[in-house]
Specification:
14% helix, 33 strands, Cyclophilin, 8-stranded antiparallel beta sheet, 512 residues, 8-stranded mixed beta sheet, elongated, mainly beta, 5 domains
Length: 512
């Protein structure tokens, strides 16, 4: 039978999803949902049209009879408002005019009244060869060379978009709206689901990230580091993931949130929350728009809370932290990026940082410095996720483990043979309630964080010896939350830690 698989028409023998994926060697990640869509013949709504701009979409509705001369002209020539004629050719306090094109409409020089958001045809210099599609931005009276019968409709949506356009701004196209009811589908992770002739299947979503939102794009790379977009919240207009909620971001790329675009909150209690849109929304200063789903949009239409979507990005995430210098070199060679090794340049040295650090900057520059350290300077740790969830979040946020495979700890103070203290953040620890407190003894190799009950809240420390009296940061037992233990406590490990001094840095990675 013939189906459409991830955008390409395919002939398959199989009927079940699992067999079709195997037959076509399709990209899929176990447990993620698959969108199965039936598409009927598309029917254009002749009375509603989209004006597509670089910053979003506006909509006009035709309200006059089809037989009217101006309406007939619009239906015949709406496709001409693109390329040279697809721009704002005229703007005033009263109107925004798109065009011009040539027409045979009659010239009339009398003034006429126009209501706010009327859509009509008018001339430049009373010349039909300079015919503009005009949108009235306020109620006014003027002579545009045409009569009252040149009013064809109303601007129904995207009024702020039209108001913000200026002379020379580009109109991508004007096109009829297609009824949404013509696409019927569902999302499923049941691979035994049978597919019918002509249905469309999406097994992954591909996201094109925007250069205008460097930090927000990096946030999304971190969110989908395993190729998974987990849905925590959904409404009729969006899906959202809260996995990195709480992380701060700068204001970037505030623009119209079109269907299949992705944004992230940059402020407030929901900061760090990522949204994928099923319907267009107006711009909002709290939302950075950083990407567009260019393939697999059907997954966004039919996903629900607790679903997961297999996600690919364009470009790829340039994160090689945690790899060896040699492995990093192989990756960047395949991506046509020049690698410059710094620090420990040996093949087996572990990459702990990148310069520049952001994927979009690496892609734009075409070169990257990979900072290497000796493997013994990278410690494998076991985080106490269940016992101390808030403290684990704090630790990952402060060290950078929340968005990269290796985090770093900067030495603040040492007590030889007893403990090493590391810099933290008093502000971030302001709500760090006591959890997973020591009981009878703190063993060497345990790291803790001073909680909000102490003035030195946020300071992190690791014990180099056992103690029945003080926690890892030198506080009494009720002042420090235990957050992790080193996976391996050997004499060489303790010797390395004992030699640390102020301003030194150690690196940590979570045990898999």
């Amino acid at each position: 039978m013939k189906i459409k698989f991830n955008g390409e028409t395919q002939e398959v023998q199989s009927k079940r999803l699992c067999d079709i994926i195997e037959e076509l060697s399709g990209a899929y990640k176990q447990g993620c949902i698959i969108a199965v869509i039936s598409e009927k013949e598309k029917v254009e709504l002749k009375n509603e049209f989209a004006i597509k701009t670089e910053v979003g979409e506006a909509r006009i509705k035709i309200v006059r009879e089809k037989e009217a001369e101006a309406v007939s002209l619009f239906h015949k020539d709406y496709k001409k408002f693109r390329n040279g004629s697809g721009r704002i050719g005229w703007e005033s306090e009263d109107i925004t005019a798109i065009g011009p094109i040539e027409s045979n409409l009659s010239v009339e020089k009398n003034e006429h009244k126009y209501k706010k958001w009327d859509v009509f045809f008018g001339f430049g210099g009373f010349d039909p060869s300079m015919t503009y599609l005009m949108i009235s931005k306020r109620e006014h009276e003027a002579a545009y060379g045409t009569g009252a019968d040149a009013v064809i409709g109303k601007l129904m949506r995207g009024r702020s978009i039209i108001s913000d356009l200026h002379d020379g701004d580009r109109i991508e196209e004007i096109s009829p709206i297609v009824t949404k009811a013509e696409r019927i589908g569902f999302g499923t992770s049941d691979l035994n689901t049978e597919v019918e002739e002509g249905q469309e299947i999406f097994t992954f979503a591909k996201v094109k990230l925007l250069r205008e939102a460097l930090m927000s794009s990096e946030h999304f790379f971190s969110l989908t580091r395993e190729g998974i977009f987990h849905i925590d919240d959904h409404a009729h207009t969006y899906l959202a993931s809260e996995s990195l909620k709480g992380l701060s971001l700068p204001v970037e790329n505030i623009r119209y949130r079109s269907k299949y675009y992705i944004s992230v909150r940059n402020t407030g209690s929901e900061k760090g929350k990522v949204y994928a849109y099923k319907e267009s929304r107006l711009p909002h200063p709290s939302h950075n728009v950083f990407g567009e789903i260019i393939q697999g949009g059907g997954l966004i239409d039919y996903a629900r809370s607790e679903d997961t979507i297999y996600t690919m990005t364009e470009p790829k995430w340039m994160m090689v932290v945690g790899k060896s210098q040699k492995e990093a070199g192989g990756f960047f060679e395949r991506e046509n990026i020049e690698q410059v090794r710094v620090g420990n340049e040996n093949d087996d040295a572990i990459v702990v940082d990148l310069e520049p650090a952001l994927t979009m900057e690496i892609v734009d520059r075409g070169t990257v410095r990979t900072v290497g350290v000796d493997a013994e300077g990278v410690f494998e740790v076991e985080l106490f996720h269940k016992e101390a969830p808030r403290t684990v979040w704090y630790f990952k946020k402060i060290t950078g483990l929340i968005n990269r495979p290796i985090g770093n700890l900067k030495v603040y103070f040492t007590v030889p043979g007893m403990m090493v203290l590391f810099h933290g953040s008093a502000d971030e620890a302001g709500t760090l309630v006591p959890e997973n407190l020591p009981k009878e003894e703190v063993k060497k190799g345990i790291l803790g964080v001073t909680n909000m009950s102490r003035s030195n809240r946020g300071i992190m420390g690791i014990r180099l010896n056992d103690s029945k009296e003080y926690g890892p940061t030198g506080e009494s037992f009720n002042g420090a939350n235990l957050v992790l233990s080193l996976s391996s406590i050997t004499p060489s490990t303790l010797s390395f830690l004992s030699k640390l001094k102020e301003r030194d840095t150690i690196y940590v990675k979570e045990k898999v």
